[in-house]
Amino acid sequence: MYKARQAIPRQIFTPQWSATIATDVPAYQRIADELRRAIIDGTLAPGSRLPSVPELARTHNVSQRTAYEATKILLTEGLTVSRAGSGSTVRERPDIVRLVRSMYEGGSGKGSPWRAAMAAAGRVGTWESHSQEVTAKPAVAERLRIEPGDRVMRTEYVYLADGQPAYLATSWEPMALTLGTPILLPEDGPHAGKGVADRMALIGHRPTRWEEELEPRPLTIAEGELLGLHAGISIIVTHRTYYDDGLPLETASIVMPPHYRPVYEGSVNN
What we know:
Layout: H1 27-40, H2 53-60, H3 64-76, E1 80-83, E2 87-90, E3 97-102, H4 113-120, E4 125-135, H5 138-144, E5 151-161, E6 164-174, H6 175-178, H7 196-201, E7 209-218, H8 221-227, E8 234-244, E9 247-256, E10 260-265
Parallel strand pairs: 3-10
Antiparallel strand pairs: 1-2, 4-5, 5-6, 6-9, 7-8, 8-9
């Protein structure tokens, strides 16, 4: 008969480190961090006015130049907006969009997973794309397990939700697999617009697994222009690769704005 184990007294762990900012951090960075935390915890609500540069200088006993450098950091990070004559305000937060992914997205036979996900959310999902034959750069070649300089089909996407830019993606497929097949161009031909799993299955390669690597980095100028966001803000890029056992079929880099939240779900098999 199962016997419950005796409860172990709960131990409280008290960190031995201090959360205060080191004194050798430049003043403008300390001021920016204080404002950043106030924005994150809601003390400075979206749309509220940021203290002016003279106000910050007086409050923190620094020069106006130092105070200005602090506000510039928040502007670069996309936390505030600035208009001539009206100072800086906390950027309005766009609605959070949750994108749910299964832990394995196998072929559904229903076409684009993006279009299906948006339809389930009561929205219209579309995309714009451009494909071009290029030679694989070292990072892409490593992910596809091919040689740098091998030919790949690169497709650049702008995904749209209700006509507005949602996120960006660039995919690469080894032409050693797709050359001479009807799926050479992912967004052209008889099988255009289908997901990777459904397309690859048509040439005898059914994905058995995928893996993703997350890379934090700033948003580039070109990406910012496509998404309508300020270049330099912090983002997470997802590098995803599909495999047929050990054979890479496609790799993609997905640039998602901060207000999109990838959600992963899957079943637990006992």
